[in-house]
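Render this sequence as a predicted structure.
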Amino acid sequence: MSEPRNFHNYIGGQWLAPRSGRYLENLNPADRRQSLGFFPDSGAEDVDEALSAAQAAFSGWSRTPAPRRAEILFRAGQLLMERKSDYAEAMTREMGKVRLEAEGDVQEAIDMLFFMAGEGRRLYGQTTPSELPDKICLTRRVPVGVAGLITPWNFPMAIPSWKSAPALLCGNTVVLKPSEEAPLSSVHWTQTLEAAGLPPGALNLVMGRGEAAGAALVRDARTRIISFTGSSDTGREVGREAAAGFKRCNLEMGGKNAILVLDDAPLELALEGALWGGFGTSGQRCTAASRVIVQKGILARFIKAFVAQTQKLKIGNGLDPGVQIGPLVNSAQLEKVEHYVQMGISEGARLAAGGRRAVEVELQHGYFFQPTIFSEVEPNMRIAQEEIFGPVVCVLACDGLEDGLAIANGTGYGLSASVYTRDVEKALHAQDALEAGIVYINAPTIGAEVHLPFGGVKQSGNGHRESGLATLDVYSDWKTVYMDYSGRLQRAQID
């Protein structure tokens, strides 16, 4: 790797050093001896400058015809296709997910750019008859203002694309604050949009910690939209602050997602789904299948096979061929997972696989944890209720469909859920009864596609959605227009 260098914020079309002069080093979680560079530790003064740039650019960008805005997004998608391999490799180095998953992350951003570019010639409103003669009624979408976007480290390019592509398409200007754990992918995202011809100030990138840069972005009156992805605890505080300023607020938060495996399920398929859903991205997904609820008739057989296949998973640097499980993102996440494993043991769950840090010599410089399975887990145990965000899967037993649905619904979260069964009646009943924003039939709890809404209920979200056409309601306002060409006063509901 080349000598680490300083990266800068992107404000008003210029790459600028942070006002404080402070930087945070970004280390490879698979090998802490490797540095990806030093990134701004920005504060309120940097956010202030970025918001001023976004506010100044709003008038011109919002008046740019939507098809023209969309053309820039389309060009960015083309550029990102060309840069996909390089950006995926950098992503693996900065946050640890295996190379194939990193390529999928970049591909999701490409998909989002192309999807939103297509909406530039739609952004449909409605026309409707009036109750009065010689009168036209219609609705149209209009931009809201400056959007403050706060994104996490686990999907460091996909999630910024989910937020900034529709925000820009709708005519808003953007200040993006990525996680300090994975800022390089947002630099690459910004560079791509810049190269595609996005005008100065339309997108601004401010890097730094949430308690400084993120909080300043949420508090400032100039942000009219706040879109946040992260923990439910932080999301609650973001929501309160946004509500105090009467801001539109989109919260995408955690999950304690369940796969329900009934005794008539295609067992091998369910096992593959549990492995991918539970241990993909080392379990560091808000949609990770951290609970697997199995009907008692096949429970013993399922656990035996699940443990055997889990123990075959290869742990290592995500750039190495054949590796299936990469590192956790940092030491705090590693310690959190260890804490929950000890908690599960103390609660009386049986540790069936894993349960400790990887001890191989070649992994000693990274944050590696063995993929872990708990069996004999009761629904009220903390490991079955709280989001761990690591490679830990709890296996619970159920008597049948209704018992399994009750267990699946018995947490404060409601993001993603899955059921495996060959019975179409059970499958349809389950998709109706599961309290989740996303439901999969005979597939794991991960695998969202950009043209469909993404988000959850209960503590997983606040009613808005990422992706799909539903996200346009976050980033645009409805304007209702009445045009009366009668030449006389007409009084609705009276005349």
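Summary. The chain is about 35% helix and 20% strand. The longest strand covers residues 31-40.
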